[in-house]
Design goal:
Layout (H helix, E strand, L loop, with lengths): L1 H8 L4 E5 L15 E4 L9 H5 L2 H8 L4 E4 L5 H10 L2 E2 L4 H8 L1 H10 L8 E4 L2 H11 L3 E4 L9 E4 L2 H5 L7 E6 L4 E10 L2 E4 L3 E5 L11 E6 L5 H19 L6 E10 L2 E8 L6 H10 L5 H8 L9 H5 L9 E7 L5 E7 L14 H4 L3
Parallel strand pairs: 1-2, 1-3, 3-4
Antiparallel strand pairs: 5-8, 6-7, 6-8, 9-10, 9-11, 9-13, 11-12, 12-15, 13-14, 15-16
GO molecular function: ATP binding; metal ion binding
Keywords: ATP-binding, Nucleotide-binding
Pfam families: ATP-grasp_3 (PF02655)
Length: about 375
């Protein structure tokens, strides 16, 4: 960890992380040239709007060689950074939009032969809904282009319920509802190669923490998934990186979500940016004296050469001491209102996830 940490400290850059959600903030006291920027009572909870504020810009301009780190890229952030000649620590917003578009993601993965849940893309109406039920059974998952925290993913078993939620002729993806458990990973695509975290067990739709059965409400390392499942995830991630990310000239942090059903792994979606778990996962890595994936993300976007022992750094995928769990509670709008984490296991079961009341009471 020391070599890259020293490089970042001595890089001449001052790193500014844009924070509009306190639950996504990160603390890096070991990097004195890193700070979070936020503003109380921000009218619009948007990183581009935050960066446009005069007091925020004055803070940034007071430091030499600013490097701006958004949680999620946007065209507005790109324009502000370009106007002020600030370094942007993020991929182009158009790449983010492409990969977060659930329908285009499905089509792109299909073309590249990646293992995704079968589906049909069509305009939403009674005819397409019935055709999907004929192909996949009555229980359907219907997704629209964009969403967060599961708010663009819906479960339906009849058209009357579905049409009250999804406007007619909206382009949608219809898939079968699969029973199983969810996994995720954090990754960083560097100029030297791909680094992956071990898979984490994803807490999804726990009724004590959310009203939405598809909303993510936490994660846990280790996942307790069988070794063969973990190895499938490793290879799927490598293939995704080689077939999709590298041709787009993507670099830096990203995460993938998976579902395991009947002992088969399906790729669900990509988060082509910092992930909701990146801050906590960084703490776990620091606790284990590992160079954080987030450090490599920073290094990829600044004008500094760095070296890496790729085989050594890739060993984190099998690291036995990467242990930690995090739960979040969401309100009816899907917003996180409480968070609690600890460097221990919260659930020893994957399907179903069971978190005892003593831990839930910490929220």
């Amino acid at each position: 960890m020391g070599n890259l940490e020293t490089l970042l400290k001595n890089s001449g850059y001052n790193f500014f992380f844009l924070v509009v959600d306190k639950f996504l903030d990160i603390s890096l006291p070991q990097l004195p040239n890193f700070q979070s920027l936020s503003q109380k009572n921000l009218k619009i909870k948007n990183s581009g709007f935050l960066l446009s504020q005069g007091n925020i810009q004055n803070t940034i301009k007071s430091a030499p060689n600013p490097a701006i780190i958004p949680f999620k890229p946007s065209a507005k952030i790109e324009k502000i950074c370009q106007k002020n000649s600030w370094t942007l620590v993020a991929n182009p917003a158009k790449i983010n939009r492409l990969l977060e578009n659930k329908i285009k993601f499905f089509e792109t993965c299909n073309i590249n032969g990646l293992p995704i849940v079968p589906g049909i893309v069509a305009e939403f109406n009674q005819n397409s809904f019935q055709k999907a039920q004929e192909k996949f059974g009555n229980s359907l998952v219907v997704q629209t282009h964009f969403g967060w925290a599961g708010n663009s993913t819906h479960y339906f078993d009849n058209y009357e319920t579905a049409k009250a939620v999804i406007p007619k002729n909206t382009l949608a993806k219809f898939s079968p509802y699969l029973k199983g458990y969810s996994l995720l990973n954090n990754c960083c695509l560097t100029r030297h190669g791909l680094l992956q975290s071990p898979p984490a067990l994803q807490y999804t739709g726990l009724p004590n923490l959310t009203q939405n059965p598809f909303a993510t409400v936490g994660r846990q390392w280790p996942s307790f998934a069988p070794l063969e499942i973990q190895e499938q995830i490793y290879q799927i991630t490598e293939n995704f990186s080689n077939k999709i990310l590298k041709p787009l000239n993507y670099r830096g942090f990203f995460g993938l979500d998976f579902i395991v059903s009947d002992n088969k792994v399906y790729l669900l979606e990509c988060n082509p940016r910092l992930t909701a778990s990146f801050a906590f996962y960084t703490q776990i890595e620091v606790n284990n004296n590992l160079t954080p994936l987030f450090y490599y993300h920073l290094a990829e976007f600044i004008n500094q050469d760095y070296s890496i022992d790729l085989k050594l750094e890739q060993q984190r995928f099998h690291h036995q001491n990467i242990i930690g769990s995090e739960i979040t509670q969401r309100n009816s709008d899907g917003l996180i209102v409480k968070k609690y984490h600890d460097f221990k296991v919260f659930s020893t079961k994957t399907d179903p996830v069971i978190i005892n009341q003593e831990i839930l009471s910490k929220l």
